[in-house]
Design goal:
By secondary structure, the chain is α+β, with helices and mostly antiparallel strands. It has one domain. Helix content is 54%, strand content 15%. The protein contains 5 helices and 3 strands. It has a 3-stranded antiparallel beta sheet. It is rod-shaped and about 105 Å long. 25% of the residues are buried.
């Protein structure tokens, strides 16, 4: 029996093994975070940028629809259509849009197609300080309706 007791005393205890392994693994979480953090933050910023782009695109679509609806009315003019589209976009916190109406609603006959295009560079409306994914993109929306009238 004395032989068994001697072997047990020389075997490392579990607590000692854990302490030695713990010393070797110090800082592992920090290194793993340093490797993964840039990818994670890039993914989050990409999601924010894409979501903002989709939201602004929807606002531009609705602004073009509101503007062209104003243009096709009997009393519609180019300036009233542009101001209607601009006011709608500004109300949704999307500023700096460019609006073009073709043909001029005051010169159009009843039944003519009137087109209104709204556009804005994405860099002007991005929430990300330096947009990387959609930075050079210009968001546009076009709506077309027939001029109202009794001709």
């Amino acid at each position: 029996m004395s032989c068994i007791n001697r072997n047990r005393s020389k075997a490392p205890r579990r607590k000692d093994v854990r302490r030695r392994l713990g010393r070797k693994r110090r800082g592992t979480a920090t290194v793993e975070f340093a490797l993964i953090a840039p990818l994670f933050f890039m993914l989050v910023l990409g999601c924010i940028e894409l979501s903002r782009g989709l939201m602004v695109q929807q606002v531009l679509t609705n602004a073009s629809r509101v503007g062209v609806r104003n243009a096709v009315m009997l009393s519609g003019t180019q300036s009233s259509a542009v101001s209607a589209a601009t006011n709608f976009a500004n109300g949704a916190s999307v500023g700096g849009i460019e609006v073009s109406v073709t043909p001029d609603p005051s010169d159009a006959s009843a039944g003519d197609m009137i087109s209104l295009t709204v556009s804005v560079p994405f860099a002007n409306v991005s929430w990300v300080p330096a947009p990387k994914f959609l930075g050079g993109t210009t968001l546009t929306a076009t709506s077309v309706m027939r001029k109202e009238g009794f001709e």
